[in-house]
Amino acid sequence: MSRNGSILANLDWATIFMFISLALFGWLNIYGASYTFEQTSIFDFSNRAGKQFIWILSALAMGVVILLIDYKTYDVLAYILYGVILLVLLATPLLAHNVKGSYSWISLGPISLQPAEIAKCVTALAVAKYMGQYEYKMRDWRDLIIPGLIVLVPMFIIMVLQRETGSALVFSSFLLVFYRQGMTGLVLLAGLLAAVVFVVVIKFSWIPAIIIIILAFAALWLWNNRQVKRFSTWWIVAGLIVYSGYMLACNYAFQHILQPHQQVRIEVLLGIKDDPSGAGYNVNQAKIAIGSGQFFGKGYLQGTQTKLRFVPEQDTDFIFCTVGEEWGFMGSAAVVLLYLTFLIRLVYIAERQRDNFSQIYAYAVACIFFFHFTINIGMVLGLLPVIGIPLPFFSYGGSSLWGFTLLLFILLRLDAARVEKLH
After folding, report:
1. Which of 201, 212, 237, 330 is most buried, by CB atoms within 10 Å?
2. What is the pLDDT of residues 122-152, one digit of tens each?
3. Is the CB of residue 101 less than 8 Å from the CB of residue 140?
4. CB 301 within 8 A of CB 32
């Protein structure tokens, strides 16, 4: 069998089918969200639905090219691509225009691209390259320094220089990859405790926050004393001191580091402030749109909230509200089920990889998709803060579609090569 024939035979066609299904259904909903009564064709390239169709075709072409490249290329070029994307990320604020306070979009003629979307894929390759070395083992916190820096550097550039908080926070999904590769679960618990302390300090005061910190570290001390292999009590004391300082810094960070619109969004989510016509407008309108769809929806192209433009960003970050209004609970549940099936399939693909590089990269892909899906749906339903990240393959936009396509099809190429690696 020829090399190309071997690739086709070993491709995970179930995943490709789900990718195409999500992209096409997303395209239909973009048309539904942007549809006007004067508009006659979904292929009208002057509107977003027509443009998205071009993006989908280009993404499919990109996928084919990725599959034709030798799978070893992604391992060999991982560090080079990482260096290049860092230079691009650094140059972006100098070349980009201000888009809603963010400097993350580069204009290339008639189109605009967001390098941060590509950076997720390249960072995943670099992390997989480093952690996939034969001699690499995650024994203690020192083994996290290099992979942690690989993730933190682009995250810092995107958050601080480009002022794009949503895209930067996606990089925190790599913590799940590190956990899968042997990082102690205490790191994840530390992150959860940090989030809880931040919320308590902002919503209440430092007194209940310090009580929570003391209780958490008392529980950690009791748990540590029951372990056969214990760590030094001084680590617990140091952690207690660090969290006490962090608690004091939370209020300062909220008041002086976060942007005013970010402050208001957090206050609205926590119930500190009621701003239905301001920061809470998007989420309130999204809830109304989803709720109005009831069980079976109003019907395709029949949504009133979306047609009358009550929901901002209804074909990008808030595309899921269009699904809820026009397709109802049944349609929304079907989309969520398809995404869950897609995520489970990615984990299955990760588990069957025969080398460390491919497996670590596969888990990075699964974790990035999981983060996007969870945060996007959560913010549309008002369960999480609005941080502005797209729903994979669904939201309008070429940069995100290309970024997700790169992530997925490099994984599919590595997966298709697992039989070759036996020989």
Report:
1. 201
2. 999 999 999 998 888 887 778 889 999 999 9
3. no
4. yes
Q: Which residue has the tokens 């260096």?
A: 83
Q: Of 114-118, 132-136, 227-231, give the range with the top mean pLDDT.
A: 114-118
Q: How far apart are CA 266 and CA 387, in angstroms?
A: 10
Give the number of residues written for the chain: 423
Averaged pLDDT for residues 105-119: 86
Environment class of 392 (CB within 10 Å of its CB; exposed 0-12, middle 13-18, buried 19+): buried
Buried b / exposed e along 169-199 (16+ C-beta atoms within 10 A): bbbebbbbbbbbbebeebeeebeebeeebbe
d(CA 418, CA 413): 9
Q: Terminus-to-terminus CA distance in the chain, angstroms?
A: 15
Name the burial class of residue 38, with classes exposed (0-12), middle (13-18) and buried (19+) by CB atoms within 10 angstroms of its CB.
exposed
Name all contacts of 299-304 with Cβ < 8 Å and 24+ positions apart. 299/326, 300/28, 300/32, 300/326, 300/327, 301/31, 301/32, 301/35, 301/326, 302/326, 303/32
Span of 54-58, 196-200, 346-350, 368-372 with lowest mean pLDDT: 196-200
Q: Which two tokens stand for residue 171?
A: 């990089």
Q: pLDDT digit string (tens) for 352-405?
A: 998 999 999 999 999 999 999 999 999 888 888 778 889 999 999 888 999 999
- The pTM (predicted TM-score) of the whole model is 0.89
Phi, psi of 56 (to 5 degrees): -65, -45
Structure letter (DSSP) for residue 390:
P
User: From start to end of 178-255, where are the E strands?
Assistant: none
**404, 366 contact by CB (below 8 A):** no
3-state SS assignment for residue 384: coil
CA distances to 31, 206, 231, 307, 325 from 35, in Å:
5, 49, 61, 7, 14
